[in-house]
Amino acid sequence: MLFCLSYLLLGVLAGGYTVAEVKEKFDAYKKRFGHDFGDDDDYRMAVFDDNLRYIDIENAKGLSYTLKIGPFAHLTNAEFKETMFGKSSRFSSQRPLGTAANMEEFSGSTEELPKSVNYVAKGWVTGVKDQTNCGSCWAFSATGALEGLHKNVSGELVSLSEEELIDCSRDWQLESFRYVEDHGLGAEKDYPYTSICPNFSPGCIPPTFPCTRNAKKDVIKSHSISHINMKPKSKSSLLAAVARIGPVSVALDGMSEAFQHYGKGVLDSGCSLATNHGVLAVGYDMGTDKPYYLVKNSWGTGWGEKGYIKIAIDDSAEGVCGILLDPSYPIPA
């Protein structure tokens, strides 16, 4: 109660908003994203106000991207990291490096490649999904690449089961591909997503379910695919893979405040090179003033540009946010 009273006595909050204005925005935010904070409502409103101020300050800098009030505006950055990347996360950037047999590097020139590629527009990408705070980004990244491969091979776009990978596979996109190589993979409709934590549970470990796969319903059959672990730090290789193969599983830093509150535009700064989040490269555009990779996230359509983010294409070895460090993709066997 003392916190609430001291907060209200401020009258006009930092950033120029009155308490009434912040409360109006906060109430609209809760309604949009279905949040109910109970006894923590006043604290969450204070955090929301801090994030609102941060977003306004960053957006006033004239950057190549803008931030917005998204699904994590009630969390401090520390809480966001713990909630989305904490104890529940099975993602690891320490994946085995590819061997000479499966590591691929593009030796040509990027001038040989199309100026732009967009598999969303091409119909190879399923709708944006929401992992909630399960820490299962790696599974969504893997199914996205497999969905693109299946569309390319069969002509059918089928939403595949992340839950099967979570229950039956190990960590990482690469391990997921190996699982599918050996066992196949079913559709989401036959093995729906259930690894959901409560609305706000920092570091939540979701329930562990037994593997209940049914091989008779597999969309991708066992021994029908293989995978390529791409050479890291190769911009031309990632561009070529996206252009010539399809959607590619990549890893990047998703923990920054810029990533937490990303709204639109081309993200070219505000993140580190620590790869902690699995996503899906579904296109690129080299024909704009600010070239970018089009990346599909798994945090719902309320985040970013309807669930997508544009990551700048630059000449650094690691790529912006480390996007060039861990690319991989499935191929027909």
TrEMBL record:
Keyword Transmembrane: no
Pfam families the record matches: Inhibitor_I29 (PF08246), Peptidase_C1 (PF00112)
Record domain Peptidase C1A papain C-terminal: where: 113-331
Domain of life per record: Eukaryota
Cited CDD domains: Peptidase_C1A (cd02248)
The keyword Protease is annotated on this UniProt entry: no
Keywords tagged on the record: Disulfide bond, Signal, Zymogen
One GO process term, biological-process aspect: proteolysis
GO MF, one example: cysteine-type peptidase activity
Domain Cathepsin propeptide inhibitor: 26-80
Signal sequence region: 1-20
Family to which this protein belongs: Belongs to the peptidase C1 family.
Descriptive protein name: Uncharacterized protein
Organism: Perkinsus olseni
